[in-house]
Structure formats: C-alpha cells, structure tokens
Specification:
Layout: E1 6-13, E2 17-19, H1 35-45, E3 48-54, H2 55-64, H3 74-79, E4 82-85, E5 92-94, E6 97-103, H4 107-116, E7 121-125, H5 128-136, E8 142-148, E9 156-157, E10 168-175, E11 181-187
Parallel strand pairs: 1-7, 1-8, 3-4, 3-7, 4-6
Antiparallel strand pairs: 2-9, 5-6, 8-11, 10-11
Length: about 190
C-alpha cells in the first residue's frame, strides 16, 4: 500500500521569512493579486483530503475562512476535513462547516500514522512549528514555497537548524504576473 503524501505550503518573503518578528503576516500584502496562486491551489486541493494545522494557525484561519465568501478557494478550504494538533484545545469549530478534529500528543507520531491510512494528500499550511517538526522527521514529500516579492530584513524563518539538511529536487518553478514565484521541491528519501 502506498503512503499518503504530505505537502507543506508556505508564503515566504524573498529573504526567506514566513512571519515578521512579531509574528505578523502583513507581508502578504506585498502582492496585490493572488488570482493565479488561487487557481493553482484549487488544482492542488483536488488531491488533498485532509488539512493539517497547528493551534495558532487554526485560530487565525477560523477567524477568516468560514466567512470568506468572496475568496475563490474558500469553498475548498472550508469543505476539506481538517486536523488541529493542540494540547490546549478540546474542540475546533469551523463556522457552519464540519468542525476540525483535535489531536493531542506528538504530531509527528500522528502524521506518521495518518500517512499509512488510506486517503489522499495531507496539506500543511502555515503552522510553522508543525511544519518544522514534520520536516525534521523526514515526513514531508513536497515543499511548496510561494515567494512574495518583498523583503523583511528579519523575522521568523521556516527552516531553522532543527530542521536539518535535506536534499531537494526542483519539481517546478513558476512565476506569476503578480510578482509571486511558486517553487515546488520534492524531498529525496521522505519517510514512508
């Protein structure tokens, strides 16, 4: 039986930051048009049957996505089942949509088990602590970076020393008219 794939997708600055020093995400505004990115994400989400989130990202997402009627990807994001890894939440409502499942304990162990279950692709968005842990454990099959044309000069990096070395293969490099560039990398030897 084939293992399920894990994709980590992050918006990053040109200088490699996923958030400002204060955790702020105002760098997203460095591009005014996400239409092409959204169109690609809709295609990617057709293969995704579970979205994996950390608690902090869940709390940000649930404030926005369930009522984001004008967003092209909102229907897909809202309808795909979600798992939130948290030691503090006991429930994770998602507006009028199906609530997310909450899992306590070691997220790496949970994802290792999820990879062995039947199903489609598992997608991590944001959730930097979760993404780092999965990268360090060798459980990520594809890293998708959406590079926003802005620099911060400092902030929170996705790839710290705790992630370790990984040999990557460029799967796709795609520029968008907005100035965003999509970089997709496969991991040699992702854990099966």
């Amino acid at each position: 039986m084939a293992t399920r794939r894990v994709i980590v997708q992050e918006l990053v600055t040109v200088d490699g930051f996923v958030a400002g020093d204060d955790g702020g995400l105002d760098f997203f505004e460095g591009a005014s048009d996400y239409a092409e990115v959204d169109a690609d994400n809709i295609a990617i989400l057709r293969e995704v049957d579970t979205i994996l989130l950390g608690r902090t990202t869940y709390e940000m997402f649930v404030e926005y996505w369930p009522s984001a009627d004008g967003e092209v990807v909102a229907s897909a994001v809202n309808s795909i089942p979600k798992i939130v890894f948290s030691a503090t939440l006991d429930k994770a409502p998602w507006g009028a949509w199906e609530p997310a499942q909450v899992l306590e304990g070691d997220a790496v162990d949970h994802v290792r088990r999820l990879r062995e279950e039947p199903g489609g692709t598992l997608m991590v968005w944001g959730s930097i602590t979760l993404a780092r842990a999965l990268l360090a454990a060798g459980l990520v099959d594809e890293l998708q970076l959406r590079v926003v044309p802005i620099t911060l000069g400092g902030g929170m990096s996705l790839l710290g020393a705790d992630v370790g070395r990984h040999d990557l293969t460029l799967v796709e490099a795609k520029p968008y008219r907005s100035g965003i560039a999509s970089l997709r990398y496969g991991f040699a030897g992702a854990a099966g």
